[in-house]
Design goal:
alpha+beta, Aminopeptidase, 5-stranded mixed β-sheet, 37% helix, globular
């Protein structure tokens, strides 16, 4: 597996992965061509030194997974840095092959390399398989999360 920063050319595949699940179907627009808002968001993410939109490429050169890392500077933990993991998606036909575990091994090593003290993520309560996966690789549900959609 190869881990690399996403390019604009990867966007259709990334959006297809995000839109392929039950929740993604409700909020994403997997259209051809993609709405310009995705490209604008990509540019902002790509220009931000604290953001890393990543793809995972298999030996055949296909993008099979993606995720986004946000490195957040905090005052707590004596000015520590946290790594927020978002938009974790494995292509539907590639699930169950260990790609998720490899992704999180890479993510944790990347966080260590950047001096991060805490890796955190959220998962929708409607995704019980994802929650079991995260718990199985060592994540603990230590906090109650809140969101306010605007």
């Amino acid at each position: 597996m190869i881990f690399r920063r996403a390019t604009k050319a990867d966007l259709p595949t990334i959006i297809e992965m995000i839109a392929s699940d039950t929740l993604g179907q409700l909020r994403e627009k997997d259209e051809d061509p993609l709405p310009l808002e995705y490209y604008r968001a990509f540019d902002l993410i790509d220009e931000d030194k604290n953001q890393e939109l990543m793809v995972v490429v298999n030996l055949e050169g296909e993008v099979v997974a993606s995720f986004q890392l946000s490195f957040l500077q905090y005052l707590t933990y004596v000015g520590g840095i946290r790594c927020l993991v978002e938009n974790v998606h494995v292509r539907e036909d590639q699930t169950g092959k260990g790609i998720g575990k490899q992704m999180f091994q890479w993510i944790i090593q990347r966080a260590k390399d950047k001096g991060v003290h805490l890796v955190q993520l959220t998962s929708n309560k409607l995704r019980p398989n994802a929650i079991r996966f995260y718990e199985g690789i060592g994540f603990k549900a230590t906090h109650e999360g809140f969101k306010l959609h605007l």
